[in-house]
Amino acid sequence: MTATATRPRKRSLKNIGRAPQDTRGSWHTYLGLAAFLALSAFPLYWMFVIATSDDEAVSQIPPSVVPGDQLMENLHEVFTMQQVYFAASLINSFIVSAAVTASTLFFCSMAGFAFAKLRFPGRDKLMIVVILTLTIPNQLGIVALYILMGKFGWNGTLVSVIVPFLVSAFGVFYMRQFIMQAVPDELVESARMDGALTMRVYWSIVLPAIRPALAVLGLLTFVATWNEFQWPLIQLNGTPFPTSMVALSDLASGNYVIYRRVLAGAFVATVPLLVLLLLGGRQIVRGIMEGAVKS
């Protein structure tokens, strides 16, 4: 009785290193992504349409989808209103957002480095406290924060809008997780053996390794601070130079709201964020992907 031996199937050298299947999306995928993008961008486009139109375009049925030719006139009304100093409000928003972003990047990266690579008593318990603060709504501390700002004499000033947000729990947690993955312990120990102090390790080793994460955190912080409305409204409402979001609420106040004027101001306040996201969008994707693939 003869047994037939099964020969192993030969693998072609052409298939080595190739993906087992085609990973390109079908036309259904691209069509769905295009539809989702169009639906997401339509509110911004319609805001631009109303900002360039007259009062009749707001109540027009069906809604107008073609931009008008009155953008400059509407912007002139926004920037020349006596009740709202919109140009100064944009400058204040930039000052607050830039100060909060710079402070958040500095303090959160230092705190993240301490929690990730330094050994001190109660480190893990303190990290748990930081994480638990993320579960507390900001509205619960508004009254106490307002009283505290009043004790310092900061109510009604930009300082009261900047100081409470100099550091964030999310930023500390995010930087800690990224530093744990991006900076090996051996690299830190070798630097210490060469005589580098803690600040030297942070400045020369940690910061260059976490630049993508800093870009992500900086963009998210700047956008969130620019769009902050509740706390600036409490602190700066009634002052001649509030932030841009408070100025927009002043534009929308009154018995009769002129929507073309409000949306023209909203368009101007949105342009800096769009430019920032377009310039730094690749950094956001890069930072997220690097944090996801590192082990």
Automatic annotation (TrEMBL):
GO terms for cellular component: plasma membrane. It is found in: Cell membrane. Gene3D superfamilies: MetI-like. InterPro entries: MetI-like (IPR000515), MetI-like_sf (IPR035906). PROSITE patterns: ABC_TM1. Residues 90-280 form the ABC transmembrane type-1 domain. Keywords: Cell membrane, Membrane, Transmembrane, Transmembrane helix, Transport. The chain crosses the membrane at residues 27-48, 84-114, 126-148, 154-174, 201-226, 258-279. Residues 1-20 are annotated as: Disordered. It is a multi-pass membrane protein. Belongs to the binding-protein-dependent transport system permease family. This is Cellobiose transport system permease protein.
